Amino acid sequence: MARILTMRKALSEAFHQVMAEDPTVIMMGEDIAGGMGAPGELDAWGGDLGITKGLIGKFGAHRVLDTPISETAYLGAAVGAATAGLRPIAELMFVDFMGVCFDPLLNQAAKFRYMFGGKTKTPLVIRTQFGAGFRAGAQHSQSLYPLFAHIPGLKCVIPATAYDAKGLMIAAVRDDDPVIFFEHKVMYDEVSDDVPERSYTVPLGEANIVVEGDDVTIVAIGRMVHFAIKAAKQLAKEGISCEIIDPRTISPLDEETILESVERTGRLVIVDEAYPRCGMAADISSIVAEKGFHALRAPIRKVTPPHTPIPFAPELEDLYLPSPEKIVAAVRETVGAAQR
Amino acid sequence: MTADSIYAITMPKWGMAMEEGAVVAWHVEEGAPIAVGEEIVDVESTKAASGIEAKQAGLLRRRIAEVGDVVPVGGLLAIVAGAEISDDAIQEFLASFETATAQSEAVDSQLPRRVAVGDRHLNYVEQGVGEVPIVLLHGFGGNLNSWLFNRPELAARHRVIALDLPGHGESDEKVGAGGAADLAAAVLGIMDALQIGRAHLVGHSMGGAVAIAIAADQPARVRSLTLVASAGLGPEIDGAYISGFLAAKRRKDMKAVIARLFAKEVMVSDRMLEDLIRMKRIDGAETALCRIAESFFPGGRQIDSGLRAALLGSPISYQVIWGREDGVIPWRHADGLANVATLDGAGHMVQMEKPSAVNRLILDFIEPLGGMVEPATPT
C-alpha cells in the first residue's frame, strides 16, 4: 500500500513500465548508459544523475541509445523517429543547453500536427533538468521552461511530487504530441512520497489543489510548491488560510482551477523560480488580471528571483531564489497584514 | 476496585497508515455523565474523521487531550469511570496505562498483502485471531478501508479479513464480466488461499450482493451473512451515485458524489478523496469499474439476478442492517426479510457513520453461532 519513493525512483519506475508495455518506446541521450567510454558495467552511470540506470541492461542498446555529444543531432533524430512511428524519450541533460537544438523543436516538432492538417503525430518526450540550488553556476541552473510554454504545439510538464512525476511521465509518453518534461535537479532526492507500484497516468493540463484554503491563492511551480507548503504552515499559525495550486503542466495551463480559486479567495501570489520577465508568474498574473479582475481584492504579488543571471556564490544563490520567508511576506502584504 | 470499572478512551487506529490523530471537538464536559453509545469526542486523521462513542457508562472523569492536540494511536484521550472510583485509583490507572497500550496495539499492526488468485493478484488485510473468520466485503467504489472503523473492534475478538474486490483498491483490474459471480469467485479464491473453510460474510452494498451470491452458490463456505445496506434485494439504486463516481476526475467532483453516501455533512477528508481519484487513475481501473457498474446496475437500476429469492430460500442465518437515511439504496428493500435492524441518523455508509452500533450488531449476531475465541484476560 503505502510505498514511499523518491522522485528519482518514481521516474525510473515509469521508464521501466512504459518501455516494457510498448516496444516502440526508445530512449536517447548523452551518457544515459555507460558514459564517456568508461570501462566496467554497461550502465555504470545511467545518465548524469543516474535516472536511467538499469534500462540498457533490460531493454538493450537498440532501445537505449547512448548518443554522441551533439544535442542538435540526436534531438533532430528523435523528432524524426517520432514522426516515423516510434515514441522516443530524448534526454537533454540541462535545459540550459537547449539553445543548440531549437529548430527541430520550435519549428518542426511543434508545428507538424498543425501544418500537416492533423495527419502527422509527433509522440516525443524530451526530458531535461532545470533549477537552481545545485551550486552549478549561471549556465547550469536556469529554469527556462517559459521559453517553451511560449511556443504553441509544445506541452510543458513540471512535476512537484514523486507521485505526479511517475503519472505525468507515463501520460507524456502515451501522448501523441511533443512534451517537454522538466525535472528539477535538486528534487530527485529531496522529494519523496506515496507512489503506486502499478502504472497510472496523471492527466496533462490538470492542476493539483495541494492544500485547500480561503484567504489567498498561491500558485507555485515545481520546487516552489514545497516552499509554498512551508510558508502556508507558518501563515496558518497567524490565522491566514492559503490555497496552494500546483499547475503540474504549464502548457496546457489549467486556468479554470486558478480562476475558480481566486474567485473565492480574492488574492493571488505566484511563486516561480524562473526569471520574472515574460515568465510564468507574469503570464498567470496577466490571465488573472484579465479574466478574474472583478474578484481581486488586492494587487497580485509575484515571488520570483530578480531579473539577473543566477549567482555561483552559494550565499548569493540562496539569496537569489524565492524562499518560504519571501512567500510569507508576500502573502502578508496581500492580506493587509504586512508589518508597517 | 478493579481496573475493569475504569475505562480508557484512546486514539483509535484507522488503517495501517494512521500513526496519530488530532482531537477536533469534545462533546462532553469533564465530570459529566455519559451513556453507552454517546459521542464523546471527534477525532481526525489524514484519511478519515469520526466521533468516538462511549462503550461504557459512567462519568467522564478526566479529559487528557485537548482540542488541537495530536495524539499517537493508542494514546490516552480520556478516562471514564463511575463516581464511586476514587481519584487515587484513577491516578494508579493512569500510571499503569502505558504498558497496557503496548500490548493492544499489536492487533492492528498487520500490513495489507497481495495474494495470487488464479491469474490475478488480490489485496487483503488480516487482523485478529479466531476459529471462523469474519470476511468484510466493501461496496462499489470502496476498498478495505470502507471498514476502517469496524476492523479494530471486530478483530479484538475474531479473525477478520477485509479485502479489496477486483477492480478496487490495490487488487488487480481483471474483473471478468464484472458480475456477482465473478466477484464471488475472487472472494472464494482469497478464502482458499488463506485456507478458510467457512466464514461469516459481512457485505456492504454491492459487497452484500456478492455475499449472497457466495451463500447461494457455496453454502458450505458461509457460516452467516450480515448484509449492510445491501445491493441485490430490490431494483432501486441511486444511479447518479454510480454515474457520478465513474465520471469524477477531480477531488471536488468526487466530493459531491461521496457526500451522497452519508446522512450528515461529514468530514470527508481531502486525502480520502485523493485516494479515490488516484485509484481511478490506475491503468484499467476505470474500465473495470464501468464493467462492474454495467453488470450490477445497468441503466441506473439494480439487475435482478435472483439474489433476493436465493437469500429467502437459503438455510444460512442472515441479518440485515440499514441506515434510515440511506439515499443510495432504500432501506425499504429490507421489508419482508428477517433480523432487520435500521439505524437512525445514518446514510448508505452506515458502518462508518454508526460504527459502534454496527459492530455490536455483528458481534451479537455471529457470536451465538460459535467460532469465537475468548480474549486473553489481562493480568
Tell me the layout of helices and strands:
The complex is a heterodimer of chains A (340) and B (379).
Chain A: E1 4-6, H1 7-21, E2 25-29, H2 55-59, E3 64-66, H3 71-83, E4 87-94, H4 102-109, H5 112-115, E5 125-130, H6 145-149, E6 155-157, H7 162-174, E7 179-184, H8 187-190, E8 192-194, E9 208-211, E10 216-220, H9 224-237, E11 242-246, E12 249-251, H10 255-265, E13 268-271, H11 280-291, E14 301-303, H12 314-320, H13 324-334
Parallel strand pairs in A: 2-3, 2-4, 4-5, 5-7, 6-7, 10-11, 10-13, 13-14
Antiparallel strand pairs in A: 1-8, 6-12, 9-11
Helix pairs in contact in A: 1-7, 3-4, 9-13, 10-11
Chain B: E1 6-10, E2 20-26, E3 33-34, E4 39-44, E5 49-53, E6 58-63, E7 70-72, E8 76-81, H1 87-104, E9 113-117, E10 120-127, E11 134-137, H2 151-155, E12 160-163, H3 180-193, E13 199-204, H4 206-217, E14 222-228, H5 239-247, H6 251-259, H7 270-281, H8 285-296, H9 307-312, E15 318-323, E16 340-343, H10 350-353, H11 355-366
Parallel strand pairs in B: 11-12, 11-13, 13-14, 14-15, 15-16
Antiparallel strand pairs in B: 1-8, 2-4, 2-7, 3-6, 4-5, 6-8, 9-10, 10-12
Helix pairs in contact in B: 3-4, 5-6, 6-7
Structural description of this entry:
The complex is a heterodimer of chains A (340) and B (379). Chain A is of the alpha/beta class and 340 residues long. Chain A folds into two domains: 191 residues, Thiamin diphosphate (ThDP)-binding fold, Pyr/PP domains (Rossmann fold), CATH 3.40.50; 127 residues, Rossmann fold. Helices cover 36% and strands 18% of the residues of chain A. In chain A, strand 6, helix 7 and strand 7 form a beta-alpha-beta unit. In chain A, helix 1 runs parallel beside helix 7, helix 9 crosses helix 13 and helix 10 packs across helix 11. The radius of gyration of chain A is 20 Å and the shape is globular. The model of chain A has no long low-confidence stretch (mean pLDDT 94). Chain B folds into two domains: 106 residues, OB fold (Dihydrolipoamide Acetyltransferase, E2P), CATH 2.40.50.100; 257 residues, Rossmann fold (3-Layer(aba) Sandwich). Helix content of chain B is 30%, strand content 22%. Chain B has eleven helices and 16 strands. In chain B, strand 9 and strand 10 form a beta hairpin. The longest helix of chain B is centred in the first third of the chain and has 18 residues. Chain B is globular, with a radius of gyration of 21 Å. The two termini of chain B are 14 Å apart. The C terminus of chain B is likely disordered. Chains A and B meet through loops of A and helix 7 of B.
